[in-house]
Design goal:
The chain is 83% helix and 0% strand.
Length: 65
């Protein structure tokens, strides 16, 4: 196999699997962030936490995604 064929096959493999893994990772991060956000709001209602918890809770999914 020539060097050009090796490079072309490597580029094909990179193009095929590149975006799918990134998007899956983004969704996993958003899911984890949403769960943490819901836990923060629930903890705020159960215990006397400062009010900044309610302000920070909506930002958590976007920061973790």
């Amino acid at each position: 196999m020539s060097e050009i064929q090796v490079i072309e096959s490597a580029l094909r493999r990179a193009a095929r699997g590149g975006a799918g893994g990134s998007i899956a990772g983004l969704w996993h991060g958003l899911l984890v962030g949403a769960i943490i956000s819901l836990l923060m709001v629930g903890a705020y209602h159960l215990w006397p936490l400062p009010s900044w918890v309610l302000l920070a809770a909506p930002a958590v999914p976007f920061l973790s995604g």
